[in-house]
Amino acid sequence: MLSHSPCPMQTPNLKMETLLKSALETSTLTRTGQSGGGCINQGEAYITDNGTIFVKSNSKPQARIMFEGEMEGLKALGATGIVTVPRPINVFDHPDGGACLVMEFIEMKGLRSLSSRLGEDLAKMHMQNVLLESRGNRITDKPAADYVAQFGFNSTTCCGYIPQENEWNDDWVAFFSQQRLDYQFRLLEKEKGDREALEMWSRLQIILPKFFKDQKIRPSLLHGDLWSGNVAQTKRHPVLFDPAAFYGHHEYELAIAGMFGNFSRSFYDAYFKVIPKSSGFEGRQRLYTLFHYLNHWNHFGDGYKNAAMAVMKSLLK
Ligand code: ADP
User: Fold this and answer.
1) Which whole-number Å values give the CA distances from 71 to 63, 158, 296, in the listed order?
2) Can 225 be counted among the known catalytic residues?
3) Which fold has domain 115-316?
4) What is the predicted ipTM?
């Protein structure tokens, strides 16, 4: 999730360390000093008997839902065998309230030389489910993975700390309209009493199908919050982390990084080599950024209102 300011470093928490020692059955639990806080969570690395782990913790009551979703997302992304993500270990209740997510620690640095590899791998991951459909029930010596025919996910996932409604839906336009945009507008109305945005939304939702004319959209597994703060690289491969995963339109994945101008040209060239742009791509990107502006508005306040309203105005033209 977009970070506005660095979070304070985590101080040692003895109750937490006792819990981790017993839950992970390790006699060694040594802080490495590598702590990483996004804006939402605190992160801390420890050496254990079974390798180095990274623990994200959050004291909010909704932390368990958030971390369980992140764990399911990491499992699904890792299971593709195409992208590298930290292997999730488990979610525990935090002794001070909230929860923590324990995962494999990966030594990583900023994404630079492997941008194009990330673009290619991401596109291949987006195609994986789509290709399963076209292969049908072809008999191979490998057990076939199941084609996921709907949009959604097997658990709630959070983009930031706001839950995403992931109930399975056959129709992408209905899914994106109701379970993504409408959900954010309802939250704005409830939390901020904003009726101006809601009025524009009532006009926009009527014309949404025009952005999808002649498009046959199939579900792709998405990271769901793919901006530069959630990617990195090791010496050998790109790494993705902090997902808000679900099955959705592959183009949706590119919107948040596009909004902040985050990725290099080589990333996009490699991505579009595997999945070329289809007609109406730019208009749909604007539509997909609307979700992220609304989500930022709901997380960080009215500083994002103007941007969200401007996107809506341009979509209504
Ligand atoms: P948040 O959920 O608060 O946004 P992130 O998951 O983005 O937190 O993690 C914050 C930082 O912690 C990352 O930028 C990265 O540097 C570091 N980090 C996250 N996961 C791992 C991991 N598995 N191994 C090593 N470092 C990690």
Assistant:
1) 12, 11, 23
2) yes
3) Aminoglycoside 3'-phosphotransferase; Chain: A, domain 2 (3.90.1200)
4) 0.98
